[in-house]
Design goal:
The protein has two domains: 2-157, 3-Layer(aba) Sandwich (Glutaredoxin); 181-240. It is 51% helix and 17% strand. The protein has helices spanning 2-6, 32-41, 58-72, 92-97, 123-131, 159-180, 182-207, 210-240; strands at residues 20-21, 28-30, 47-53, 79-85, 105-110, 113-116, 140-146, 151-154. Helix 6 crosses helix 7 and helix 7 (182-207) runs antiparallel to helix 8.
Amino acid sequence: MMMMMMMMMIGRNVAPTNALINAPKGAIEMKAEDFERFLATTSTKVVVGVKFYAPWCGHCKKVAPEWDAFASNAKDERAVVLKLDGSKNEAKDVMKRFNVRGFPTFYFFGDGEMTEFSGERTREGFEAFARIGRKSAAIRRKYAYNEQTGKIMFGKPSLKQRVLELVKDGARDLAQIVSAKPGLALSIFVVGVWTGACAVGGMFFLAGDWAAAQLWRDHVKRVDAKSRAALAAASADKKSL
C-alpha cells in the first residue's frame, strides 16, 4: 500500500526541462539531473534506451557507432535512444540507485519496467532487444516516478532477481580485478592448480598406484612452471605500463 502511494503514473505531464542536448546525429546526450524527469514525461508505450558510458572507456568507444546507428532508426522501433556520461560527479546518485557498476551499461525502459540489455552489442542486437528481447530479459525491475521527490522508485525485486544481480555484480567486480591486477588473478589460479593437483595425487597415493602418482607429480610440475612463467610475464607487463 505504501509503495502504491509512493508511485506515480509514468507518462503524466511534467513541466518541460532542458534535458536534451541535441546531437547532430545518433543518440541524444542526457544530463543526469534531468534523466528521471525525462522518463516521467515519456509515454510508457515508447521504449527508452540509455547507454551509461565514460569518455575514457575503450569498450564504450567501440560500441558507440552501433548505438548511434540504433538511434538513427529509433523512430521505426518507436524508441528514444539516449546516452549518459556516468563518470561525472553529478551522475553518482543516478549511477548508485540504478545499480550501474561498470561501463558501458545499457538499460531499456518501457511498460513500467527497466530491463538490462543482454545480447550482441550491434545495431541489430539493440533493435531486437527493444522489440522483443526486453520482454523476457533476465534482469528487470518495475519502476514508477515519484513527483514529490522527482526520482524514479523501484519495486521490490524477487529472490531470483536479487540472485541474478548479485551474480552480475560479482562477475563485473572480478573482471575489474583481473583487468587491474592480472598478476594477482594468475597467482590465485596457480594456488588453485596446486590444490587440485595435490588432491588428485593424494587419491593415486592412497590407491597404491605409485607410478600414476609420480607421473601426475611430473605433469603438475610442468604446468606449474608454465604458470609461473606466465605470472612473471604479466607482472613485467604491468610494471612497464
